[in-house]
Amino acid sequence: MQKQPVTVIGLGPMGQAMVGAFLDQGHPVTVWNRTASRADDLVARGAARADTLAQALAANELVVLSLTDYAAMYDVLGSATAALPGRVLANLSSDTPEQARDAAQWAAGHGATHLTGGVLVPPPAIGKPGSSTFYSGAREAFEAHRETLAVLTDTDYRGEDPGLAALFYQLNMDMFWTCMLSWLHSLAVARANGITAKDLLPTAIRATDLRYFLEFYTGRIDADEHPGDVDRLAMGVASVEHVVHTTRDSGVDPALPATVLEIFRRGLATGHGSDSFTSLIDVLAARP
Ligand code: NDP
Q: Containing H/E element for 65?
């Protein structure tokens, strides 16, 4: 039986990996990209190049978008809205929940169905086990195309609200970028002390495996309980001060841990010194 044909628009590193995964699994793929030459290798592997965007949209019901952001989607699709009726746009470009909700309305206004996607893995993991993408939007359209979309990554459907997949994605990125930056910061301090990234790797892997702490504190946070029976914020302040001092003593810019320290100290100033550091969630939630 012929596999479902699919159109992919946007051939950055991610779109290219997605086309490759579809081709590997025997799905006929039509491709279009603003810079047409990016399709050359994929065409050599069996993809069909659409000469115009309208042809790309007309070719298949399921259209995967892999663009830098939603502004790029309007730039691209805005020129061919007449070809949109009946299309299911699986938009795997990342942007904010509000952008996703607006896009779903915009697509519906042009007779298309928008599915929001938030891809959680880098291009080399596309088509590999263990990868995952958040989806949200019209359930019926998602269910109709789930099997084909699952060629790319596992699918994690979060509900009908088109903003939800984008929200879960942004929550993921919130953690990802701050964790990655803290790793880079510790590497800057390590390097200033003659320690390489390779030397630090086992320590870095242990330090960023926060599963025990997340599981321990999750129930307490949902219950709004922050007892200082295991850790006290006053201890946390002293600990972060040590990080700031070690950074300075190493001749490295302390901006990152200094920001962390400032947040910890705000918690102290609001009387949470004897509570757990998790009481900082109220400090973080309040706009200064
Ligand atoms: P890139 O930004 O490298 O490529 C995006 C594509 O968007 C290119 O095909 C580019 O066309 C096109 N594009 C950008 N602006 C416009 C425009 N104004 N008009 C027409 N086309 C435009 O992104 P990636 O491929 O790396 O990623 C795609 C999406 O996937 C992004 O939203 C990203 O956040 C998300 N993502 C990426 C990951 C990664 O590791 N790369 C991981 C998880 C999610 P052209 O070739 O002509 O420049």
A: strand 62-65
How many structural domains compose the chain? 2
Q: Does residue 91 line the site of ligand 1, with CB under 6 A? A: no
Q: Block means of pLDDT (10 residues each) for the chain, length 288 residues?
A: 94 98 98 97 97 97 98 96 97 97 98 98 96 98 98 98 98 97 98 98 97 98 97 98 98 98 97 97 86
Phi, psi (degrees; rounded to nearest 5) at 74: -65, -40
Per the structure, the complete domain to which residue 134 belongs is given by 6-160
Q: Does a structural domain hold residue 1?
A: no
Nearest residue (CA) to ligand 1, atom 30: 93
Q: Residue 240: CB within 6 Å of ligand 1?
A: no
Residue ending a domain, among 160, 181, 202, is: 160
Residue to substitute in 14, 18, 96 for testing ligand 1 pocket (most ligand atoms within 8 angstroms of CB) = 14
CA of 100 to the centre of ligand 1 (A): 16
Report whether residue 13 contacts ligand 1, using a CB cutoff of 6 Å: yes
Distance, CA of 115 to CA of 163 (rounded, Å): 10
The residue out of 160, 194, 211 marking a domain boundary is: 160
